[in-house]
Amino acid sequence: MASRGCVLAVFAIFFISRILCSHGAPVAPITPYLMLCQPHMRCGDKFYDPLQHCCYDDAVVPLARTQRCGNCTFRVCFEQCCPWTFMVKLINQNCDSAPTSDDRLCRSVS
């Protein structure tokens, strides 16, 4: 009978986790280990929550992190600095591509 109880317990845990995950229930980690259903990405050897952080230059940084590009400031999780032109482009754009309305031209700081 103990074996049947273990099987039911495992089934119950599986069933509850499936219900929680199907509704996208947010789960905040309370330990260094990631919790079930929490969205996560990997940056080098570290995991992070993409709703709060991003991977920039092999480091986990907050989404609000900014950096200088000439006389401009850009958001490292969403934008990139093209240093040879001092242009800020969206992260998925190629620095060699033609300027778009989303780009910002910055000046060199001497």
Automatic annotation (TrEMBL):
Q: Which InterPro entries match?
A: IGFL
> What does UniProt give as the signal peptide span?
1-24
Q: Does the keyword Secreted apply?
A: yes
Keyword annotations? Secreted, Signal
Identify the main location: secreted
Q: Give the residue spans that cross the bilayer.
A: none
Keyword hit for Secreted: yes
Q: Which family does the record assign?
A: Belongs to the IGFL family.
Name of this chain's protein: IGF like family member 1
Q: What organism is the protein native to?
A: Mandrillus leucophaeus (Drill)
